[in-house]
Amino acid sequence: MGNIGGPEILIILVAALLLFGPRRLPDLAKSAGQALRSFKQATSAVTDDLRAGLDPAAPAPGMAPTAITPAAVTPAAVTPVAVTPVTVAPPAATAPAADPLRA
Fold first, then answer.
1. How far apart are CA 77 and CA 25, in angstroms?
2. Could you tell me which residues come within 8 angstroms of residue 33 by beta carbon, excluding any fewer than 6 positions away?
3. 100: pLDDT confidence band, cut at 50, 70 and 90?
4. CA trace torsion 76, 79, 82, 86 (10° rounding)
5. Between 24 and which of 11, 20, 30, 49 could a Cys-Cys bridge form, CB atoms 3.0 to 4.6 Å apart?
C-alpha cells in the first residue's frame, strides 16, 4: 500500500485526460510545475534562514562580519554607570472578600 506503479499512473492520466480534455491538460501541467517550483524555492529560503539563524558564526544576510579588537575597547567603554536604587512600597493590605455562598 502506498506504492504507485505504472498501471496506477496510467489510470490517473487517462482520468485526467477525460476530465479536462486534451487542450487544457498541458496548461494544467504547466501550472502544477510552476506551483511546485515556487514551493521548492520558498522551502529552501526558509531552511536557509533557519540554518543561518542556528549557526552563530554566520553573519546575517547583507551584514559584514565585525571584529572587536583590544584597541577598540577603552576603559570608558567598560566602566559601569552609577545605578540609583529604587524603593517599592509593599501592596496595601486588603480584607478577604466575603464568600457569597457562605453568607
1. 68
2. none
3. low
4. 130
5. 20
User: Could you give the CA distance from residue 26 to residue 28 in angstroms, rounded to a whole number?
Assistant: 5
**pLDDT at 70 exceeding the cut of 80:** no
61 touches 52 (CB < 8 A): yes
CA distances from 35 to 57, 98, 102 (A): 34, 64, 66
C-beta neighbour count of 59 within 10 angstroms: 11
Give me the mean pLDDT over the 69-83 stretch. 62
Cα dihedral angle (24, 29, 34, 35), rounded to 10 degrees? 100
